[in-house]
Amino acid sequence: MKKFFFSLFLNIVIFIAVSNVFDGFSLPTDFMYLLGSLLILSFAVMLHRPVLKFLTVKINFLTYLLTVFLLVGGALYALELFVPSLYINSSAFKEVNLQVITINAFKVSQIGTLLGVAFVSSFVSALLESLKRSSDD
Questions:
Q1: Using CA atoms, how far apart are residues 106 and 3, in angstroms rounded to an integer?
Q2: CB of 38 within 8 A of CB of 15?
Q3: Which string of DSSP letters, residue by residue, matches 8-52?
Q4: Half-sphere exposure of 15 (CA within 13 A, CB side)
Q5: Distance (Å, rounded) from C-alpha 28 to C-alpha 87?
Q6: pLDDT tens figures, 2-30
Q7: Does residue 56 register a pLDDT over 90?
């Protein structure tokens, strides 16, 4: 039970952090919609284990990343359809100059924002899961 609540809290923190990275992804302002959306997204991430066990696939970083990406992407798409104040719009990124390399400003479409949010959140979740698994061994 302790692992369940820790995983739930960790996934909620991941989605709040990712919502700050993408300006086109905004979580609901109403507390009940916000809580419901974060819980649904967190449960989507936590569904990876039953899905992979059903498919009889070994759980490693790559399979975790792919499964969570698909589950979160589907959950985000469904939430955008049904939650009135969750918005996924196009995102604009500012220019970054690192002295050696310069990344020009660019804009990502609505579907690109959805895929970006799903990928970044699944990557962070997979990274933390693999670090947790390596510390358990």
A1: 40
A2: yes
A3: HHHHHHHHHHHHHH-TTEE--SSHHHHHHHHHHHHHHHHTHHHHH
A4: 29
A5: 8
A6: 888 988 999 999 999 999 988 889 999 89
A7: no
CA dist 82 and 23 (Å) reads 20
The answer to whether 69 and 48 have CB atoms below 8 angstroms apart is: no
The string of DSSP codes covering 65-126 is: HHHHHHHHHHHHHHHHHH-TT-EE--EEE--EE-SS-EE--EEE-HHHHHHHHHHHHHHHHH
What is the 8-class DSSP label of residue 137? -
What are 109-119's pLDDT values in tens digits? 999 999 999 99
Contact criterion met (CB below 8 Å) for 113 and 25? yes
> Which pLDDT belongs to residue 2?
86
The residue written with tokens 């952090």 in the block is 17
Provide the whole-model pTM: 0.87
